[in-house]
Design goal:
Bound molecules: NADPH dihydro-nicotinamide-adenine-dinucleotide phosphate, dtdp-4-keto-L-rhamnose, magnesium ion
Order of helices and strands: EHEHEHEHEEHEEEHEEEEHEHH
CATH class: Alpha Beta
Pathway: Carbohydrate biosynthesis; dTDP-L-rhamnose biosynthesis
CATH architecture: 3-Layer(aba) Sandwich
Number of strands: 14
CATH superfamily: NAD(P)-binding Rossmann-like Domain
Catalytic activity: dTDP-beta-L-rhamnose + NADP(+) = dTDP-4-dehydro-beta-L-rhamnose + NADPH + H(+)
Function: Catalyzes the reduction of dTDP-6-deoxy-L-lyxo-4-hexulose to yield dTDP-L-rhamnose.
Family: Belongs to the dTDP-4-dehydrorhamnose reductase family.
Cofactor: Mg(2+)
Helix content: 25-40%
Largest sheet: 6 strands, parallel
Number of helices: 9
Radius of gyration: 19 Å
Number of domains: 1
CATH topology: Rossmann fold
């Protein structure tokens, strides 16, 4: 099976390069590769796909700067809303399947129980709106697909809350973190490994055939916490593992109103992962167990 992976250095793309390797030939392209693939440029998308002619396209690239998207909404929409539709069209043209990632930020955040795939959406910011439009474009085109909504992604590479907190905890005596937004932090490696399992369970030799199981799935770690709760565990586990000195920093819980940002974020965006378990028997560990596993990896 020939898999075109879009993205090379992003948090999820980096992990996918390894996780997908057993499933076939992985061609990973980004804006700097040969051929280059720039999601903001429809011609580069179409040219690369027609040249590679993959059996499966996995799109792990996106415009992910949530606050900056409020200023750069046109670019965010080109990458997150228009490009996925073009990917789906090209997938259909070359007979390929498409796996694409979306976000918990498509939900309004006024719920109190985990959001299911078919719950009403209502993004609170430009990034969320752009990602939702991308999902809808893929469904509209009708190529065999999975849209995998994940949340609060972190890992050892890239820009993420874990690495930001580790830096701030080394630099500052006090780190103030919002305690009124709830979600499920999800380790990038587990997203990649679950994706590989989904591909394996949906492929027959070189063909990606999800059949009736195609569609949208939530794929996040279990449990829930606030950003402050996440930061507390990062501090505890990192000290425990000797990644931070014992006497560094103190954490203070604050309301979102004390941490103003250009983009509004949902107050509650926990995802229900039941559909993934029902259809594929896959379940990711709880977020705090996954955080420990991820930090174990920092030692090497
Ligand atoms: N990060 C998170 O917390 C969450 C992410 N998601 C979704 O998961 C997916 C993976 O996200 P994640 O791994 O965190 O992403 P990252 O922010 O780590 O990386 C984004 C990647 O997209 C690439 N990219 C940006 N613009 C373009 C472009 N115009 N053309 C080609 N590539 C581009 C970047 O490439 P370059 O190196 O060239 O900049 C980078 O490799 C995305 O769909 C995202 O929306 C969902 C929920 C949470
Ligand atoms: C750095 C920092 C952030 N915060 C707050 C701001 C914000 O409400 C929250 C998280 O900040 P971040 O900028 O890391 O998170 P954010 O960019 O909103 O993360 C989101 O990214 C996109 C791509 C997604 O799809 C979402 O699932 C989610 O992971 O923490 C503090 O309270 N104190 C701090 O020192
Ligand atoms: Mg961010």
């Amino acid at each position: 099976m020939k898999i075109l992976l879009i993205g090379r250095e992003g948090q999820v793309a980096w992990e996918l390069r390894r996780s997908l390797a057993c499933l076939g030939q992985v061609v990973a392209l980004d804006r700097r590769s040969t051929p280059p693939l720039d999601l903001a440029d429809p011609d580069s998308i179409r040219t690369s796909i027609r040249q590679i002619r993959p059996h499966l396209i996995v799109n792990a690239a996106a415009y992910t700067a949530v606050d900056k998207a409020e200023q750069e909404s046109e670019l965010a929409f080109r990458i997150n809303a228009e490009a996925p539709g073009i990917l789906a069209e090209e997938a259909l043209a070359v007979g390929a399947g498409l796996i694409h990632y979306s976000t918990d930020y498509v939900f309004p955040g006024d719920g109190e129980t985990p959001y299911r795939e078919d719950d009403p959406i209502g993004p609170q910011n430009t990034y969320g709106r752009s990602k939702l439009t991308g999902e809808e474009a893929i469904r509209q085109v009708g190529a065999p697909h999975f849209v995998l909504r994940t949340a609060w992604v972190y890992g050892r590479r890239g820009q993420n809350f874990l690495l930001t907190m580790l830096r701030l905890m080394r630099e500052r005596e006090l780190v103030r973190v919002v305690d009124d937004q709830y979600g499920a932090p999800t380790w990038s490696r587990l997203i990649a490994e679950a994706t590989a399992l989904l591909v394996a369970k949906s492929s027959v030799k070189e063909r990606f055939e999800p059949g009736e199981r195609q569609g949208t799935y939530h794929l996040s770690c279990g449990g829930q916490t606030s950003w402050y709760g996440f930061a507390c565990r990062i501090l505890d586990y990192s000290r425990e593992k000797g990644l931070l000195p014992a006497s560094t920093t103190r954490l203070e819980p604050i309301p979102s109103s004390d941490y103003p940002t250009p983009a509004q974020r949902p107050k509650y965006s926990v995802l229900s992962n039941e559909k993934l378990f029902d259809q594929f028997g896959l379940v990711l560990p709880d977020w705090d167990q996954a955080l420990r596993l991820c930090l174990d990896d920092f030692g090497c």
